[in-house]
Amino acid sequence: MPGTRSSARQAAAAGNSSSPASSQAQPKADKKNAAAAGSKRKAGANTASPQAKKGRKGAKKAQATIEETMPTEGGAEEDSKDTEMQDEPQPASAQADASAGAQDKTDEKSNQKESTAAHGGTDEEQKQEVANGEADDQKPDVQTNEQGPEVKESDHAEPNASEEAKGGDAVEESTEREESTPSSILEKGIIYFFFRGRVGIEEPSDVNDIARSYIILRPLPRGAKLGDGPIGDAGHNRMLALPKKVLPVSPKDRFMVFVEKANATMDDIKNSLSASDYMTKTAGSRHTPAAAPIGEGVYAITSTGREAHLAYILTVPSEVSEVQEDIGLRQRGSYLTSAKNPTTAAPAGANLPKGAEYPQEILDEFHGRGWMPLEPKLLDYENTQFLLIGHKEDSLEKATVPQPDDEENGKEAPKEELEKLEHEDGLRVQHLKGDDSVFEDLGLDSKEYPKLQTTW
Fold first, then answer.
1. How many other C-beta atoms are found inside a 10 Å radius of the C-beta of residue 336?
2. 167 vs 234: CA distance, rounded Å
3. Are 428 and 228 in contact (CB under 8 A)?
4. pTM of the predicted model, to two decimals?
5. C-beta atoms surrounding 380 within 10 Å
6. Distances, alpha carbon 43 to alpha carbons 40, 48, 93, in Å
7. Per-state percent for the chain, helix, strand, coil, to nearest 5
8. Cα–Cα dist 114/135, whole Å
9. What is the per-residue pLDDT across 16-57, written as a single tens digit (0 to 9) for each?
10. Beta-carbon contacts of residue 71 (< 8 Å; ≥ 6 apart)
11. Alpha-carbon distance 405 to 411, whole Å?
């Protein structure tokens, strides 16, 4: 047994002599593993790298606004696509990675990863999708994941004015109405008047505080009559801009108007009328207010032989007040209209950077002249320019003079058709929300826009 105890003592001594080395090696290994683990956690943290922060700053500067492309001062309007991207609930790291990836296109693998992060949403959103019954194996790509929750949210949200208006069925087509409509009415429809305050001015106190005024035309079928409900979105809306801000009130007033948007949807109109914020190098953050409605009614583009007119009757407000009078609106009115040939020179200060791009058959109708009576088809081209020339009193009478051919064929007088349409529109507005029917018709949230203004 002596040999056994000696062997045990030797083994114990050997163990004690090797213990310090192994204990020192163990902390080093732990520190190394901890450092590696820390690196992995930092890579997945929400702290953006300097390059990503730089990319994020650059992304803000790159945003463009609608009004910056317009030929007059008065602020800027937000780009809807940029707004929608800002509204997406992305993690901070995803936003930083997406910005950095846009600047560094050489790392293809990184870009693919960043694109997935930018559209995939947060972990909480993904958990919610699973809770809603959308299993991972039912989601073949990221875009499907993103669209799924949006549809569900809209299904359970409060009634949306835009969706209601798009499905509006107030327009009823009548063969009898079409046959009785005089040929001198080239087009009829619903008309809206808006103005926008200057940058930073939410509530204009007079015309000088206005940046720009707008007219929105929503054409109706020739045989249309109006029933209850909002006007549906046919995708054929037009947005006209008035750089002069006011409407002509006498034959001396000859104001140029141009088509800012043609064949526009209600979403296009909404984006153009909404408020926006943007950055400038000198003044910093600037705010462009939402446009305010000042009138709604019915209109007709008429022909009286060698002349064309834009005639209207207001439904809202029921009586014009100081705001409408200062802008140049009357309860009933009309303007002589003349469209400009885009191939000829315009008056000083009245030229757009780019003219309307008419097909050759329309250009031929000018017969080399600089102007021709306005026709509805010209309004289907953006940048169409035309003059509005004021009338004296009884302007509606001048625009609705019955033509001999229509009288011989037993057609109604243009004024009678316009008055009938206004009566139907008045009943329709009463059954909606009164003055707020403007918002419902255009699919706008009345909470996001000023009320219809009658006083400054």
1. 22
2. 10
3. yes
4. 0.64
5. 16
6. 5, 9, 10
7. 45, 20, 35
8. 23
9. 444 444 444 444 444 444 444 444 444 444 444 444 444 444
10. 243, 352, 353
11. 9
